[in-house]
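Backbone-to-sequence.
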C-alpha cells in the first residue's frame, strides 16, 4: 500500500468508517422497541434472522457495524480487506432495501420517501468497490514494477 494509495482512499474511508462506527455504537445501547423494529425489518428481507431474538440481532448488527467502521478507520487495514468489509455490509443493506416493500416506488428501483434513508447505502457500496479496485490496481502496479 503506497502513500499515494492511502491518500486517495483516505476521505472515503474516514467519512464512511466514522459514520458506520458511530451507528454501531448507537445500536449497542438500543432499547427493546428499537431492537424489535430493526429485527422485524431485517427478518422481513432475511427470514433466517427470525431465529435470533431482537436483542441478539441488534447486538450482532452493532458488532458488525463497529468492526466494519473500525476496519475503514484503521490505516493498517489494507484496502482489500476494508473494501470487502464495506461492500459486504452495504450490499446487505441494499438487499434489505430491494426486498422490503414500501422502500421503493412501485415498479421502480428509485426510493420512496420511506426508502431514502436506506437507498443512500449505494454510495457506501460504491466506496467499497473503489477500495477493492484500488487494491487490485495497486497489486498490478507492484507486479509490473517487479517485472520491469
Amino acid at each position: 500500500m503506497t502513500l499515494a494509495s492511502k491518500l486517495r482512499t483516505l476521505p472515503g474511508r474516514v467519512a464512511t468508517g466514522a459514520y458506520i462506527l458511530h451507528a454501531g455504537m448507537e445500536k449497542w445501547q438500543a432499547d427493546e422497541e428499537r431492537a424489535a423494529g430493526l429485527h422485524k425489518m431485517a427478518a422481513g428481507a432475511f427470514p433466517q434472522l427470525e431465529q435470533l431474538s431482537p436483542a441478539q440481532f441488534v447486538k450482532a448488527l452493532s458488532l458488525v457495524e463497529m468492526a466494519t467502521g473500525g476496519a475503514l478507520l484503521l490505516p493498517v487495514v489494507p484496502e482489500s480487506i476494508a473494501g470487502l468489509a464495506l461492500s459486504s455490509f452495504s450490499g446487505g443493506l441494499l438487499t434489505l432495501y430491494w426486498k422490503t416493500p414500501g422502500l421503493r416506488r412501485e415498479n421502480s428501483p428509485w426510493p420512496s420517501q420511506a426508502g431514502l434513508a436506506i437507498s443512500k447505502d449505494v454510495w457506501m457500496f460504491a466506496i467499497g468497490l473503489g477500495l477493492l479496485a484500488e487494491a487490485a490496481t495497486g497489486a498490478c502496479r507492484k507486479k509490473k514494477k517487479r517485472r520491469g
